[in-house]
Design brief:
By secondary structure, the chain is an alpha+beta fold. The protein is 47% helix and 18% strand. The protein has a three-stranded antiparallel beta sheet. It has a two-stranded antiparallel ribbon with strand order 2-3. Strand 2 (54-57) and strand 3 form a beta hairpin. The chain starts with a strand and ends with a helix. The model has no long low-confidence stretch (mean pLDDT 92).
């Protein structure tokens, strides 16, 4: 599963005038934002209580997540599969390598969604804006 984020057309028109140090600052900011979102995905999956059904998994009691809750952490594979990639100074992507990640995030015909990546991105939205501002300010002082 991959979520791609790019500055919108209006922002791109304004940002296109940026040169050298400002583009590097934006790329640094995107890298820091990616690291924060990846950390947030792991936190969302690994912490908090779940209210779904109880199962036994490899002899250990396990409580699944209920629809609308983040996925429960059973093996740690989903949390460990989170990644980000900065393509250039204006585009990055977030994703998870586990094939079942998209089914959890968006749901299926038989299972309602267990959003976690979109929640992490939303949770870090304001800090992302602050990070971009911080890096651009630092580059121009």
């Amino acid at each position: 599963m991959t979520i791609r984020i790019t500055f919108n057309a209006k922002a791109m028109d304004n940002l296109d005038q940026l040169k050298g140090k400002n583009r590097l600052a934006l790329k640094r900011a995107l890298h820091n934002i990616g690291r924060d979102v990846k950390r947030e995905v792991k936190r969302i999956i690994k912490t908090g209580t779940r209210t779904g059904k109880w199962y036994t998994y490899q002899g250990i009691p396990y409580q699944a997540s209920k629809a609308g809750e983040p996925p429960a952490n059973r093996s740690g594979k989903l949390a460990s599969s989170a990644y980000f990639r900065v393509h250039n100074w204006h585009t990055m992507e977030f994703g998870e390598h586990e094939l079942y990640a998209k089914y959890l995030e968006y749901g299926t015909g038989k299972m309602k969604a267990r959003p976690h990546m979109s929640v992490a991105i939303q949770n870090k939205r304001q800090s992302a804006v602050n990070e971009i501002y911080r890096e651009l300010t630092k580059a121009n002082n």
